[in-house]
Design a protein that fits this description.
By secondary structure, this protein is mainly α. The chain is built from 16 helices and two strands.
């Protein structure tokens, strides 16, 4: 194994561990946040739900503002230091949340987790920037699979320990692991040395910010809309299940369906990464993923049995895996190399805006509309994302592969042309072995 390949694999392993730890620590509180708030002495359904909603949304709100700033700093001082910073911030926030005795301190810890953390965003920016060009999609896919795995394991661990009173200890353990990973990433993460930083980007992207990227505005709207629909479905879906299943088993079914979704996301992450590397058309992938999400979400409003609903959740999870990584792949292909991390951070801020707005607006929406109609509206948000992506995908097809994607092809063509010259056969002229020679 070459030194570059060994370094790439080590980078992916460290990034995967950091993202998994971050997401598991973030998600372990989400499903059981009302119970955790009640354990702090808060009484009354309205107060508990209010504090729970604020605590759930706090990290995403902070990340929306902080991610582009951290991304631009990473372009200046090194993207691996942003991963280290994020893990250290995660360790500090987990300690604050574990020691919180009231919801105010808990929300402060969650805000700290978003503003100083952002391990997933830093790791995605690093993976999209440091991976070899031909493996960038696979690197982003593997990186996103860690988010899916953490989203699957975190809630299970939190739900198991909240009743046993061991959740604070688990948060301290996650903080300790994050601290150790910060040290490991500081020592082990290495950005490859290449001529790529000298490349100033393609087209208008080299002369401006995110708005100069191809299809920037419609893709920004698509990012907000897609994540609005997916994350806005979470509270609406729980109420829908409660009306369809016995009250004593509704919670179990919500957990089962959620686990199926994230399990499909985990497996789908690898497929989308390989697909993007082969096709080199990430906007088309984003369009397909948005459309499938829209249909699978809206169809969950139908009076389906457990098997039908489970199949739709599997489809939704597999399609969801292609959203963020395809958007980041598109940005990484067109952004200037010396500004790639900051622009990926900006793209991620649109996803986070939808992730924050969806759950916050789902509550008032559920109070006005029945759950089935609310689910259809969440699916409509995915349809809006599909509509925004479609013309950009068509332009991508018309534009063809850009310079970055054609470089490996040109290199292979050059190698093939040079191949006969490498296998030269000396031919004696005039039948004399000591005479002049020609090479063919």
């Amino acid at each position: 194994m070459s030194t570059a390949e060994h370094r790439h694999r080590r980078n992916i392993a460290l990034l995967w561990a950091g993202q998994f730890t971050n997401t598991a620590g973030l998600m372990m509180l989400v499903p059981i946040m009302p119970f955790y708030i009640e354990g702090m002495g808060v009484t009354g359904t309205a107060q508990v739900q209010t504090w729970a909603g604020v605590a759930i949304a706090a990290p995403a709100l902070a990340l929306t503002a902080a991610t582009p700033l951290w991304g631009r700093l990473g372009d200046r001082i090194g993207r691996h230091w942003m991963v280290v910073r994020a893990l250290a911030g995660l360790a500090l926030s987990m300690v604050v949340m574990a020691l919180a005795a009231n919801p105010v301190v808990l929300v402060a810890g969650r805000l700290l987790q978003g503003s100083l953390g952002g391990v997933v965003e830093a790791a995605q920016a690093f993976a999209g920037s440091a991976a070899p060009g031909g493996k960038r999609g696979a690197a982003l896919g593997k990186s996103f699979s860690a988010t899916a795995a953490g989203s699957l394991i975190g809630p299970l661990a939190g739900g198991f320990l909240v009743g046993a009173g061991g959740l604070s200890g688990l948060m301290l353990a996650v903080g300790a692991i994050a601290g150790l990973l910060a040290v490991a990433c500081a020592a082990g993460l290495r950005e490859p040395r290449s001529a790529e930083p000298a490349v100033r980007g393609t087209g208008h992207a080299s002369r401006g910010g995110f708005r100069r990227l191809p299809g920037a505005l419609p893709l920004a709207v698509a990012a907000v809309a897609a994540y609005f629909g997916v994350y806005g479905l979470i509270p609406v879906f729980a109420e829908h299940v409660q009306r369809s299943y016995p009250a004593d088993g509704a919670g179990m079914w919500v957990g089962v369906f959620q686990s199926l979704t994230w399990g499909a996301t985990l497996l789908g992450s690898f497929w989308w990464g390989r697909h993007n590397d082969l096709a080199q058309r990430p906007v088309r992938a984003l369009t397909i993923a948005s459309g499938v999400c829209a249909v699978s979400i809206a169809a969950q409003a139908l009076p389906l049995g457990a098997v039908g609903l489970a199949l739709l959740r599997l489809v939704q999870g597999a399609a969801f895996a292609g959203l963020a990584q395809s958007l980041f792949f598109h940005v990484s292909r067109h952004a200037p190399a010396d500004r790639r991390s900051g622009l990926i951070g900006t793209a991620n801020s649109f996803l986070l805006a939808g992730q924050s707005a969806g759950p916050l607006l789902a509550g008032p929406m559920a109070a006005v509309f029945p759950p089935a109609l609310s689910i259809v509206l969440m699916g409509s948000a995915g349809a809006l994302a599909f509509a925004c992506c479609l013309p950009v995908a068509r332009a991508e097809r018309a534009r063809g592969t850009d310079a970055a994607s054609t470089l490996p092809v040109k290199r292979r063509m050059s190698d093939e042309l040079d191949l006969p010259a490498e296998r030269t056969i000396p031919i004696a002229v005039g039948g004399n072995s000591g005479g002049s020679r020609l090479e063919r």
